[in-house]
Amino acid sequence: MTGYAPAEAARRSGFSLDTLRYYEKIGLLADVTRTAGGQRVFTDDDLSWLVLFRCLRDTGMPIAQMCRYAALAREGEHTFGERRELLEQHAARVEEQMLLLSRQYEHLREKIRFYERLPGPAPETAQPTRSGPAVSR
Fold this sequence. Notes:
Layout: E1 3-4, H1 6-13, H2 17-25, E2 33-34, E3 40-43, H3 44-58, H4 63-75, H5 80-117
Antiparallel strand pairs: 1-3, 2-3
Helix pairs in contact: 4-5
């Protein structure tokens, strides 16, 4: 079994030390071993969990659902179906968000293309109209 100091586990997972402590405190990470001096030692299994948690967090899964998934996993194989369902529901929400972002990204790109087609900046001598400068949306 390979052991990793907290700083190394944080570096490998991309989580801060505070986040690692928080995840342990709320039970997301369970049974993190400790040295005789009380320092946490993270295993490859702990790092595998952290990789999954990074994925779930980065894709917007709420902590409560992450905790539910971890609790189900600790209950054993009889929870495979419930875990799969939880992940499928989350994947559907991620897909919806990706579609929304794709549409919004295309809108943003179209707006950038609009500005790229405009001639250079207006001469400094141009005077704004009485109602103020025109605004392009």
